[in-house]
Amino acid sequence: MTRPHVLLSVAMSVDGYIDDASSERLRLSDAADFDRVDQVRADSDAILIGAETLRRDNPRLLVDSADRRAARIAAGKPEYPLKITVTASGDLDPTLRFWHHGGAKLVYTTDAGATRLADTLSGLADVVPLGTDLDFAVLLDDLGRRGIGRLMVEGGTRIHTAFLAADLADEIHLAVAPLLVGDSNAPRFLDPASYPGAPHRRMHLADVTQVGDIAVLRYLPKAIHP
Ligand SMILES: NC(=O)c1ccc[n+]([C@@H]2O[C@H](COP(=O)([O-])OP(=O)(O)OC[C@H]3O[C@@H](n4cnc5c(N)ncnc54)[C@H](OP(=O)(O)O)[C@@H]3O)[C@@H](O)[C@H]2O)c1
Fold first, then answer.
1. Which of 11, 22, 78, 98 has the maximum number of C-beta atoms within 10 A of its C-beta?
2. Ligand 1 contact, 28 CB (< 6 A)
3. Mean pLDDT of 140-145
4. Which of 159, 163, 173, 191 to mutate to test the pocket of ligand 1 (most atoms within 8 A of CB)?
5. Residue 156's closest CA among 189, 180, 181, 179?
């Protein structure tokens, strides 16, 4: 069975933070960088974010460009990529914007989480229990069976950390915004973890692009560079 290609997408400050510690979402990307991300979304079969990002940021997670959506339809794809979230607890509010925009939605959860969500998300999303714990390799196997070829993962910290710690990420798009956050209570791109081969394994740096004042680095974490 073929697992999807997994692309982690993140924007961080120069000092490595992906948000500040306030209740307002920190805008790290500018309009040009959001447009770049919109293209990556349009090129994906599915987009995944963690339940905490859903609860905190309340994103719609759409392809904004009508032209890109039209191109998807012309290519025989659904207008919007499948939207996916991951929760162990099942603590997801049905009024979040995620459920009410775009196309199909999928929730990967535990058996306990599925029990909690059965009524809450009825008619809004497919809820898929994966057992007592969430295993991201099992999740990717399931997406492969559903015909998902390209998965874009948009965070947050715990989700990115889990994919990289399990060596399940094929590509990272790291957008570095020219600002400093400087607050130790703010979330970082990654948590400490036992990453395969750390600290000596080098990723392949596939590309460096400037988008306005943002540097976009493209890494291939599994391609070991000599
Ligand atoms: N700058 C960027 O590019 C960017 C992008 C996205 C997010 N962010 C920021 O990231 C922050 C949120 O990051 P976060 O780490 O707190 O949250 P997160 O990664 O978005 O979500 C974590 C949640 O996902 C579920 N989960 C994740 N891994 C799991 C596992 N292995 N087993 C079971 N459940 C798992 C749990 O949900 P339950 O608690 O429901 O069980 C957990 O609380 C926010 O501040 C957001 O703004 C920034």
1. 98
2. yes
3. 98
4. 159
5. 189
- In whole angstroms, what is the distance from residue 31 CA to residue 58 CA? 19
Cα–Cα distance, 17 to 41 (Å, whole number): 22
Q: Is 33 in the pocket of ligand 1 (CB under 6 A)?
A: no
Instruction: Please tell me the distance between residue 226's alpha carbon and the centre of ligand 1 in angstroms.
Output: 33
- Indicate yes or no: pTM above 0.85: yes
Per-residue pLDDT at 69: 98
State the average pLDDT for the chain: 96
What pLDDT band is residue 70 in, cutting at 50, 70 and 90? very high
Rounded to 10 degrees, the C-alpha dihedral 86/174/5/223 comes to -130
pLDDT digits (tens, 9 = 90+) for 76-106: 999 999 999 999 999 999 999 999 999 999 9
Spell out the alpha helix ranges (H) of the chain. Answer: 31-42, 51-57, 66-74, 111-120, 136-145, 157-165
Tell me the DSSP string of 128-141.
Answer: EE-SSS--HHHHHH
State the distance from the centre of ligand 1 to the C-alpha of 195, rounded, in angstroms: 18
Task: Please say if the pLDDT value at position 224 is more than 90.
Answer: no
* 181 Cβ inside 6 Å of ligand 1: no
Domains of the chain and CATH, by start:
5-13+40-214 (3.40.430.10)
pLDDT in tens, 151-198: 999 999 999 999 999 999 999 999 999 999 999 999 999 999 999 999
- Residue 179 in contact with ligand 1 by CB distance below 6 A: no
Separation of alpha carbons 97 and 142, rounded Å: 25
